[in-house]
Each structure stands twice: as structure tokens, then as C-alpha cells.
What does this fold into?
Amino acid sequence: MSIFRTSEFSQEGFDLGIIDSEKLQRIESEWNSSDDKNTEHYRWRAFLDFMESQEFLDPLIAKRLYDLGASDPDAPMGGSMMAHVLRRKDCPVELLRAAAESEENFLRKIAAEKLAKESL
It folds into this structure.
């Protein structure tokens, strides 16, 4: 589907279930009828929809979602994805520890705060 490339979705997003054929059809319909051509808005909404549907994140899936944010073509949106994963109550401690070593101050701060709460 051309909307897959146009919206800059990745195969990893498809593999994780963030998007599927049905969701891509809805996004394409919205894209065609909207003035909003900011591709990151569509990826963000798909990511949030997926995250809201997940009662529990397997640690491997959490890591893959975090890495997906790190590789997003829009760095600020990708950072928001990473932060969203870190803020979840089921974020694995190993991922928090890795984020505590991040080059990004905001990710280090989120991780440090959560790790401090974990140790109480």
C-alpha cells in the first residue's frame, strides 16, 4: 500500500501489530480526506492506539517499541514513543537501566525517576 511508504511506517511497526492492513486502509482514507500531511501524526496515533490496547507489555515487545521510537524518521515523535514506553508501569527494569544511560537527557530523567521509585 502506498500509504505505508507515504506515512513512513516501518516493517517493524507492522510486525509488532501497531499497524495492519485494516488500519492502513483507515489511515489512507483519513490521509486522502485531510489537510494534515504530517506523517508523524498518523504514526503517533497508530502507536497510541496500539499502546492503549495492550494491558501488559512483554519485556521483549517493550524493548522493540522503544527501539522503534529510536529509529523513527521524526526524532521528536520517536522520543515521545520512547518516553511513553518508559512511563508505563510494566516497563522492564532492564529497559529503564539502559535508558538511564541514554544520550538524551529527558530519557535519562524518566528512567532515573522510575528506577528511584522501584528501589523504595
In short: The chain has a mean pLDDT of 95. Residues 57 and 88 are 9 Å apart (CA to CA). The chain has one domain: 2-118.
